[in-house]
């Protein structure tokens, strides 16, 4: 099979500031939303031509803690964010209405990493101001009492699922913003996903820590309607690290997971695909990411999976046979992350939140502007 991504290249660089960009999501095919560890969310409009300096056009304000997940409803009209401030917020994804404001980009740019392995540190970019429209949320969900790490949408846009560090999972009526069901897990919810039909919630739980006596991670399928456990996959997915991201393929054929820990050296950032009904492992992709795999995203073609890790790489995998198609980016031993991935609905563009420089890289997957 020819490599359809052979000409993939970065065509846009979206700058920000000194804080880690922790979440990214496409709004349609020409807008990118990015959230950071301060609780800020910026919206960028993508032009038709390549650019290495694209300023944001909107700033979404209201969160007071780190943004952990960003998702967009299937109709493309609503952006949803989950945060350490214990809230989930809805935002108008397409409106340009709001108050005028500004945001400083490249302010206090950090030079982090294992600098002893670098002959010369790069020159930090100059800070500059961008004029933006400031917008507030259109709805807020306040059912959680701890940090919200898990966020997932059903394919029809009717159900939203959230999970927090207290082990509480809530299924919401997404349009109304009302609770349909909630249940209690044993440990912290590290990541979760909801099946395309909205009936099953796949949940990874773990208790983070550096001690060798840390409670081992667990993984379960839950009934979204009743909150009852359907399948215990803890043995099937056994390992020292919790799943950092879980995702169902749009056609429901695959369940992808990635894991890893920044505290452990070596090729621990495993990426696997599983049977979405039984949870049985279908394939473990090799070579894994070094130290940690942070996110996974299915390509709309239904044939490829993308993963991102602490090794600064985005890996493209062939689902049929688990073959590594190619790596995007340059391997670094440690210190920098690709924290989050999003693929445009038409499959042409990939957005990757890059911790090395606090920016979002937008790739053209077919090599065209």
Protein described:
This is WD domain, G-beta repeat. InterPro entries: WD40 (IPR011659), WD40/YVTN_repeat-like_dom_sf (IPR015943), WD40_PAC1 (IPR020472), WD40_rpt (IPR001680). Keywords: Repeat, WD repeat. It holds the Pfam family WD40. The chain is an all-beta fold and 369 residues long. The protein has a single domain, classed as Methylamine Dehydrogenase, Chain H (7 Propeller), CATH 2.130.10. Helices cover 0% and strands 48% of the residues. It has no helices and 30 strands. The chain has strands at residues 9-15, 21-27, 31-36, 41-45, 58-60, 67-72, 78-83, 88-92, 99-105, 128-135, 139-141, 148-153, 159-164, 168-173, 178-184, 188-194, 200-206, 218-223, 229-232, 243-248, 255-259, 269-274, 281-289, 293-298, 304-309, 314-318, 324-328, 338-343, 349-354, 359-364. Strands 2-3-4-5-10-9 form a six-stranded mixed β-sheet, with no helix packed on it. A four-stranded antiparallel β-sheet has the order 1-30-29-28, with no helix packed on it. A hairpin with a 5-residue loop joins β26 (314-318) and β27.
Short description:
This is WD domain, G-beta repeat. The chain is mainly β and 369 residues long.
Order of helices and strands: EEEEEEEEEEEEEEEEEEEEEEEEEEEEEE
Which oligomeric state applies?
Answer: single chain
**How many angstroms does the end-to-end distance come to?**
24 Å
* Residues in helices, as a percent range: under 10%
- Percent in strands: over 45%
Q: Please tell me what the overall shape is.
A: globular
Provide the CATH architecture. Answer: 7 Propeller
Number of domains: 1
Average pLDDT figure: 89
Specify Rg, calculated over alpha carbons.
Answer: 19 Å
The secondary-structure class comes to mainly beta
The level 1 CATH classification is: Mainly Beta
* Uncertain regions spanning at least 5 consecutive residues: none
CATH topology heading: Methylamine Dehydrogenase, Chain H
Number of strands: 30
In the sheet with the most strands, the strands line up as 2-3-4-5-10-9
Task: Count the DSSP helices.
Answer: 0
Give the biggest sheet.
6 strands, mixed
The CATH homologous superfamily is named YVTN repeat-like/Quinoprotein amine dehydrogenase
Organism: Lignipirellula cremea
Protein name: WD domain, G-beta repeat
Keywords: Repeat, WD repeat
InterPro entries: WD40, WD40/YVTN_repeat-like_dom_sf, WD40_PAC1, WD40_rpt
């Amino acid at each position: 099979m020819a490599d359809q991504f052979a000409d993939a290249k970065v065509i846009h660089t979206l700058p920000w500031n000194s804080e880690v960009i922790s979440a990214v999501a496409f709004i349609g095919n020409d807008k990118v939303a990015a959230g950071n560890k301060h609780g800020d969310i910026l919206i960028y409009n993508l032009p038709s031509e390549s650019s290495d300096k694209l300023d944001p056009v909107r700033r979404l304000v209201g969160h007071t803690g780190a943004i952990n997940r960003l998702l967009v409803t299937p109709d493309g009209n609503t952006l949803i964010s989950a945060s350490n401030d214990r809230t989930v917020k809805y935002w108008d994804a397409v409106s340009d209405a709001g108050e005028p404001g500004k945001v400083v980009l490249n302010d206090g740019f950090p030079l982090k990493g294992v600098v002893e392995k670098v002959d010369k540190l790069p020159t930090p970019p100059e800070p500059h101001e961008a004029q933006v429209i400031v917008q507030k949320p259109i709805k807020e969900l306040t059912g959680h009492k701890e940090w919200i790490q898990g966020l997932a949408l059903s394919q029809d846009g009717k159900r939203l699922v959230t999970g927090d560090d207290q082990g509480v999972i809530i299924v919401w009526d997404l349009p109304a913003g009302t609770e349909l069901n909630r249940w209690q897990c044993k440990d912290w919810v590290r990541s979760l996903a909801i099946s395309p039909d909205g009936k099953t919630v796949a949940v990874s739980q773990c208790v983070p820590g550096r001690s060798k006596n840390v409670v081992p991670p667990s993984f379960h399928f839950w009934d979204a309607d009743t909150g009852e456990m359907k399948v215990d996959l803890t043995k099937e997915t056994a390992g020292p690290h919790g799943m950092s991201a879980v995702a169902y393929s749009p056609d429901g054929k695959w369940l992808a997971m990635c894991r890893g820990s920044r505290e452990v050296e070596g090729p621990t950032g495993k990426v696997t695909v599983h049977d979405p009904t039984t949870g049985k492992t279908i394939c473990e992709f090799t070579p894994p990411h070094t130290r940690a795999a942070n996110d996974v995203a299915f390509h709309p073609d239904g044939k490829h999976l993308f993963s991102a890790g602490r090794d600064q790489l985005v890996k493209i995998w062939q689902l049929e046979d688990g073959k590594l198609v190619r790596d995007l980016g340059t391997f670094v031993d440690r210190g920098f992350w690709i924290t989050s991935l999003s693929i445009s609905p038409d499959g042409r563009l990939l957005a990757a939140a890059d911790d090395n420089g606090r920016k979002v890289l937008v790739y053209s997957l077919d090599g065209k502007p």
